[in-house]
Amino acid sequence: VQLQASGGGLVQAGGSLRLSCAASGRRFGSYDMGWFHQAPGKEREFVAAISWSGTSTYYADSVKGRFTISRDNAKNTVYLQMSSLKPEDTAVYYCAATLTRGGSSRFSEYDYWGQGTLVTVSS
């Protein structure tokens, strides 16, 4: 499966953005999907994940209550709605696909990655 992330940009602290990740391939609905981010000079970190059916979601503590992950299997797309953004959310955001169940937070368990989209939150 090929992934294409989009929707990043510059936003003021407290603002919102919605990221999208469009997937190609007929097996999109078989994959759990995740979002990770990587700030300059830091390791890639887990942000959120969603089960193949969309019924289960998982979040890093740092984004709980502010970010929402969702998916539309008919459109082969997963979303990350980000609200109450903080300067520390500034990073390149990547979507990824895995056949591992349970909302894995380990980037090594994801098989396919999108190219990343930059989110910059100004103070």
What does this structure look like?
With 123 residues, the protein is mainly beta. The protein is 0% helix and 50% strand. The protein is built from no helices and 11 strands. The chain has strands spanning 2-6, 9-12, 17-24, 32-38, 45-50, 57-59, 67-72, 77-82, 91-98, 112-113, 117-122. The strands form 2 sheets. Strands 2, 4, 5, 6, 9, 10 and 11 form a 7-stranded mixed beta sheet that branches. The chain has a 4-stranded antiparallel beta sheet with strand order 1-3-8-7, with no helix packed on it. A hairpin with a 6-residue loop joins strand 4 and strand 5 (45-50). It is globular and about 40 Å long. The mean pLDDT is 96.
Summarize the structure.
The chain has 123 residues and is mainly β.
Strand content: over 45%
Number of helices: 0
Report how far apart the termini are: 37 Å
Question: What is the average of the pLDDT values?
Answer: 96
Major sheet attributes: 7 strands, mixed
Low-confidence stretches: none
Note the run of SSEs as H and E.
Answer: EEEEEEEEEEE
Radius of gyration: 13 Å
Shape: globular
Q: Helix amount, in percent?
A: under 10%
The structural class is mainly beta
Number of strands: 11
